[in-house]
Amino acid sequence: MAASRRLHRETLHGYESRLVEIGAELKRVRECAGLPQHVAEEAEALVKKYFEVVRGFPAEVVAVAVMWTAAKASGAPRPLEDFLKCSKADERRVRKAAWRLKEAMRQSKRPSIEDYVKTLAARVNLPAPVVKAAVDILERNRRVLFGKNPWVSAAAALWLVSLKKLGLLKALAEAAGTTPISIRNAAKRLRV
After folding, report:
1. Residue range 2-109 in CATH 3.30.70.2740
2. Is there a contact between 128 and 162 (Cβ–Cβ < 8 Å)?
3. CA separation, residue 87 to residues 36, 72, 75, 133, 172 (Å)
4. CB 58 within 8 A of CB 92
C-alpha cells in the first residue's frame, strides 16, 4: 500500500501535486494556529477557486495568505503574526498574495450589467424580450458604459427598448434610485 501511495504521489499532475503541497501546509498552519476545521475547509476552497491567482507563490506563502483570508471571512479574524509564527513565509510576500486574493474575490463578486437589467425589469414588471433587447444594446455599447453608473445605464437601455414611454421613465428612475434626466442623458450616449 505504501508503494502504491508513493507511486501515485510521484505521478500526480502539476496542479494536483501543487494542491497536495499547499494542503499539507494548510493543515500544519491550522494546527499550529489552533483554528477550527471550517476555516481550513474555507481556505482549501479558496485555493481551488483562485489557484491561478496564487500559483506563482511558494506553498507556505499561499497557505498563510489563504488561511489568514479565510479566518477573516469566517468571522474569526486573527493578526497575521499568529500565522507567521507557524510558518517560514516572508511577511511581505504573504501580504502581496493576500492582496491579490482579495482583489480576485472582489472582482468575482461584481454583478454583470445583465444582472442590473434583470433586477430593474423585475422591479417595474417588464417582460423577458425587453430584458434581452436591453442587454443586447448594452453589450454593443460596452465602451460607453465604462465608468458609468450601471443602474442608470440599465434603466436607459430598458427605456430605449420600451419605446421611450414617459410613465415607464419615471418608474425606472424610481426603481434605479436616480432621476429621469440622468436616464435620458444616458440614453443619448447609447447607440441603438
Report:
1. no
2. no
3. 18, 18, 22, 54, 54
4. no
Phi-psi domain of 147 (left: phi exceeds 0; alpha: psi -120 through 50; beta: other): left
pLDDT in tens, 54-80: 888 998 999 999 999 888 888 778 888
Give the tens place of pLDDT for each residue, 13-53. Answer: 677 778 888 888 889 888 888 888 888 888 888 888 888 88
Of 19, 9, 14, the residue nearest 66 (C-alpha): 19
- Return d(Cα 94, Cα 113) in angstroms, integer: 34
Q: What is the mean pLDDT of the chain?
A: 86
CA distances from 179 to 43, 92, 152 (A): 44, 46, 9
**Is the pTM value of this prediction over 0.90?**
no
In a 3-state reduction of DSSP, which class is residue 50? coil
pLDDT greater than 80 at residue 10: no
| Four-way CATH pick for 113-189: 3.65.10.10, 1.10.490.10, 1.10.472.10, 3.90.1570.10 | 1.10.472.10
The DSSP output letter for 152 is H
